[in-house]
Design brief:
single chain; alpha/beta; 7-stranded mixed β-sheet; 12 helices
């Protein structure tokens, strides 16, 4: 064989030389999407009546990023977020990504000993929390683990047990001793020059770590999995490609953000396809289905058992009032075998496909048909495409006057029924 006829091995998936969708950082990619259509809706919380366009979200996260810089956070530092799916979970995710800070996702149902482990193991410099979730009192746990927080001003924390921890942030407008609040960070950011943001963005690239997710620890101690900008941005893009998402799609996300199913397969897939995210803070079948109906959702994420309940408990006929409409839903496969399920029968016979359960290390899914078990390139499906762009604000429940819709203090979820939400 002559020298001219020799071929070199082509890059394979996983190789640093393999050509992917984008080599931008997450912050730069968001700017690119904003430039294309700044007024397109990006984040919608139906139960809070909160709506952020791509431009709104970009501006808020810029201010929050500069606020983090103002309190001493810098590229390479670790910031934990311990909260349910409130709006500022997303703003801290993007704000930290914009300045090269590594976000550590913390399971919202962690108890004291579990938080203690993650605080020590992750070298966390700042921790963002809400007040409580279910039976877990976050603030009391922080006071117990970090008693120094009761006796120092914010920004001056020095913990004997957690030497890396310097800042506590409350994800809401309320003031707590030793904590910064989100409004304070936004105000600090507004008085910080843009040049500080530009400086931070020059200190890292897309191969740097942007997120640390912890495994469940079922076979040992939880392990922090390091995910880069390049990793989660491109994973999200190809997940969205498999689902054939587009800018016209309105994707309902009732799945937890602390897990890759929410923040990568959901949020990153929507960012890379300029979708609108319709977010429900915690899975509740009635609230999810209300969001699908009122916001003209075209797709929904969920887990199989919860999704099956949702499908059989809802009358789809008001949603599928156009001939040829199809309701198709994306659910993850349970991690353990289960007995065969009877077909779900609802209006227009929507098809429900299973997908492989995602894990922190890969953040990938592979669609398969539940009947034939053959690969399906469109694992997430569309619902009521004809109404995707129709405004439908009537009847959306309103947050009380004065509430911070982006914090953990708004009305949130109401598991007791939909009637109270409309009062």
């Amino acid at each position: 064989m002559t020298e001219e006829n020799k071929t070199t091995d082509a890059p394979v998936p996983g190789s640093p030389d393999y050509p992917l969708h984008s080599e931008l950082t997450i912050g730069a990619y968001l700017k690119q999407q904003v430039a294309i259509d700044p007024d397109h809706e990006f984040v919608v919380y139906p139960d809070r009546d909160l709506r952020w366009t791509y431009k709104d979200f970009d501006e808020r996260t810029d201010a929050l990023a500069k606020g983090l810089l103002a309190i001493g956070m810098k590229p390479g530092d670790h910031l934990g977020v311990w909260a349910r799916n409130i709006p500022d979970w997303l703003t801290f995710m993007y704000a930290s990504a914009k300045i090269g800070v590594v976000m550590v996702t913390v399971n919202p149902v962690y108890k004291s000993h579990e938080l203690d482990y993650v605080l020590k193991q992750s070298d966390m410099k700042a921790l963002c929390v809400i007040d409580a979730y279910r039976d877990v009192d976050y603030l009391q746990i922080i006071r117990d683990l970090v008693p120094e927080s009761l006796n120092v001003q914010r920004g001056f924390l020095h913990s004997e047990a957690y030497p890396f921890l310097e800042n506590l942030i409350y994800m809401g407008p309320e003031k707590h001793r030793g904590f910064y609040s989100v409004p304070e960070l936004l105000l600090l950011g507004q008085h910080k020059p843009d040049s500080s943001l530009e400086w931070a963005q020059g200190q890292f690239d897309n191969n740097d770590v942007v997120m640390m997710q912890y495994t469940s620890g079922t076979t040992g101690f939880p392990k922090g999995v390091m995910l880069t900008h390049r990793n989660i941005l491109n994973n999200g893009f190809y997940i969205g490609e498999g689902q054939k998402l587009g800018a016209e799609d309105r994707v309902c996300l009732p799945v937890p953000f602390f897990h890759c199913f929410g923040c990568v397969l959901g949020v990153m897939a929507c960012l890379t396809h300029r979708c609108t995210m319709l977010i429900v803070e915690e899975f509740n079948a009635e609230l999810v289905l209300q969001a699908l109906d009122k916001e003209k959702a075209t797709a929904v994420y969920g887990v199989l058992l919860a999704g099956s309940f949702a499908l059989v408990s809802f009358d789809f006929s008001p949603v599928t009032d156009k001939p040829g409409d199809t309701i198709l839903v994306d659910f993850t496969e349970p991690p353990v075998p289960e007995p065969p399920r009877p077909p779900v029968k609802v209006a227009n016979e929507p098809r429900v496909h299973d997908v492989a359960a995602p894990v922190e290390q890969t953040a990938q899914v592979a669609g398969k048909d539940p009947v034939t078990q053959t690969p399906n390139p469109k694992a997430l499906f569309k619902m009521n495409k004809g109404g995707a762009d129709e405004p439908d604000n009537a009847g959306n429940p309103r947050a009380p006057e004065g509430e911070d819709k982006a914090s953990g203090t708004g009305p949130g979820l109401n598991p007791d029924g939909l009637d109270q939400l409309d009062q």
